[in-house]
Write a structure and sequence with these properties.
441 residues; mainly alpha; 18 helices; 5 strands; 60% helix
């Protein structure tokens, strides 16, 4: 579970690349296209929130803000561009909030009982540039590269293609060749350069987990739970990639048409080869160090697949929990308790879940963590003996009848209706465009 919600969920980060197209597309909008754009953004937001969580959405905001800022600064009509982007953001944000209402209400209901106060992991600020250089462009990637970095390293394998480094060099060359044009609009150039430097400094502070910006953000929602500060390198790496691709696009425009068309092929080949050079030594080393494949395969063959669907029948006190038995733990080590700074009540004991003490079974009622008032209980209470039916349902993975709040019911229906509306909007937009093209033909 720790790997799923704390590591694997960040594999959804590449989906953030769709947000610039949704909000910063240079084409104008009609009412139909604006609604379709907002519906697509809402579906993307819901997918990220449900599959990855609010952390990845925050990284998306950190990616979009500087892009939108430069979009406005570099355009010929900044106020008109602000109006377009703001209208898209408001429409998309409203639909996203409605579509994700059931998830947001459930999270807030739980967080009322467990407000998180985790602080970002702090690292030496002067070591951040070295870490960024190693994490993004060291070839091949090996664990030994980071042993000299003076902190407990948490994120591995964040390298970018060498194409990004080439693109950034092209950006510097283009800036030098077009320096006369930059001098003529020196005010706009100075503003863009200053904002770019501030954005880079802000990301370095966030990666370090300390500084004027980081110390203020840590008190905001979601940021107050963002413990691993090194993950702020995700949006920074995407920003660098976008700048590099734009510079390469500008540079290849002067090539002949045949060379211009073969450039993406060479970029793809370089990226694939660099990925192989990065991943192969690192992966092989970890396989040799941490895994005995033969033992793992033998263990998997010996484990009966029936436990996956078997009911939870016992509570144990092992750490870590066993994955080949249908059991629960007597004490949950989840960060829900650790970073909420709240001690967990040890109300369970090793033994069958249907052991009865003080009028309750040997299993915690999960609804008491989210809707304690509606279920007349307190967080950490066990399932009562008169609630035997829900005990059976819960341990067998079946739907339960514990009550939800009225707000949660409203949010559930709101999300369902919004989902149907978003799908309908996109389908209607597709049918309209198809009929328009046929009529034009």
């Amino acid at each position: 579970m720790h790997a799923l919600v704390g590591h694997i969920n960040f594999l959804m980060a590449p989906l953030l690349g769709a947000y610039p197209w949704i909000l910063l597309d240079q084409r104008g909008d009609t009412q139909r296209s604006l609604l379709a754009r907002a519906a697509a953004g809402a579906l993307l937001t819901a997918m990220i929130l449900h599959a990855a969580g609010a952390y990845v959405l925050v990284l998306g905001i950190l990616l979009l803000f500087p892009l939108a800022l430069f979009d406005v600064i570099l355009t010929q009509h900044p106020w008109e561009r602000v109006r377009i982007i703001a209208l898209r953001a408001i429409t998309c944000g409203t639909l996203s909030a409605l579509l994700c209402a059931e998830k947001i209400v459930a999270i807030l209901s739980l967080m009322q009982e467990f407000p998180r106060t985790a602080h970002m992991s702090q690292v030496p600020f002067l070591a951040v540039p070295k870490y960024i250089a190693l994490a993004l462009w060291a070839l091949p990637q090996k664990p030994e590269l980071y042993r000299k970095i003076p902190w407990e390293f948490h994120e591995h394998l964040l390298p970018l293609s060498p194409v990004v480094a080439i693109g950034l060099l092209c950006a510097l060359v283009l800036a030098w060749k077009e320096r006369d044009m930059l001098y003529r609009s020196w005010r706009r150039s100075a503003i863009a350069l200053s904002i770019g430097a501030l954005i880079l400094l802000a990301f370095m502070e966030l990666i370090a987990g300390q500084g004027m910006i980081a110390s203020r953000l840590v008190h905001l929602p979601v940021f107050s739970s963002f413990r691993v500060s090194l993950r702020f390198l995700y949006p920074l790496s995407l920003l660098l990639s976008i700048v590099a691709i734009l510079a390469l696009q500008r540079s290849t425009q002067r090539l002949e048409s045949d060379k211009e068309h073969t450039t993406p092929l060479f970029i793809g080949i370089i990226t694939i080869l660099s990925m192989m050079a990065v991943m192969t030594p690192y992966t092989l080393q970890h396989v040799r160090l941490n895994y005995n494949i033969a033992v793992t395969e033998e263990h998997l063959r010996s484990v009966s697949p029936a436990w996956l669907s078997a009911p939870v029948t016992v509570v144990n006190d092992t750490m870590p929990p066993s994955f080949d038995t249908a059991s629960s733990r007597s004490c949950d080590f989840d960060a829900l308790f650790v970073w909420a700074r709240q001690p967990q009540k040890l109300v369970l004991h090793a033994g069958p879940v249907d052991d009865v003490t003080e009028g309750a079974y040997n299993l915690i009622n999960p609804s008491c963590y989210v809707y304690p008032r509606e279920n007349d209980c307190q967080p950490g209470d066990r399932i009562r003996t008169e609630d035997r039916e829900n005990l059976e349902r819960f341990t067998h993975g079946e739907p339960v009848t514990w009550r939800m709040s009225l707000l949660q019911h409203i949010a559930n229906w709101t999300s369902l209706l919004t989902l149907l509306s978003c799908i309908g909007i996109i389908l209607l937009q597709g049918l309209w465009r198809n009929s328009f093209r046929k009529g034009k033909a």
